[in-house]
Amino acid sequence: MRIGEVAERAGVSVRALRYYEEQQLLAPQRTSGGQRRYADGAVQRVRWIQLLLGAGLPTRTIRELLPCVESGVVTTDVLRRLGEERTRIDEQVTELVTVRDRLDALIATAEQPGPGCVRVYA
Q: Coiled-coil ranges per the record (predicted)?
């Protein structure tokens, strides 16, 4: 597949694919003319990269995890790293829930203002 086709199927930009290549997350073959050609599994790999980036994992960690994700074989070192990342994500979730709850309280106050409060409409 050509770079534009992979980008379209995976829902990412061509620039993102070039970045993934630069970060050694994706390794296309090159034609004699220098064009990138991707294997059939490239779209699925890009989707995994997107999910892991969305979870906040750095590219160096993703580079280590991708072979395990794709093969289903996990070493003890990778298992430890996954546990660390899960703990970090859990902490982020807790923080986000706290922020959401505070926003809910502010919204409730704005919708039912008390004395001295002004209702604000967007």
A: none
Same domain, 28 and 62: yes
Q: Are 10 and 46 in contact (CB under 8 A)?
A: yes
How far apart are the C-alpha atoms of 47 and 34, rounded to whole Å?
Answer: 25
Asked if 13 contacts 7 with a C-beta cutoff of 8 angstroms, the reply is yes
My answer on whether 102 and 59 are in the same domain is no
A 10 A CB-CB count for 19 gives: 15
| pLDDT tens per residue across span 73-93 | 888 888 888 898 889 889 999
Considering the domain boundaries, does residue 34 fall inside one? yes
Query: In Å, what is the CA distance from 120 to each residue of 11, 60, 105, 109?
Result: 38, 45, 15, 10
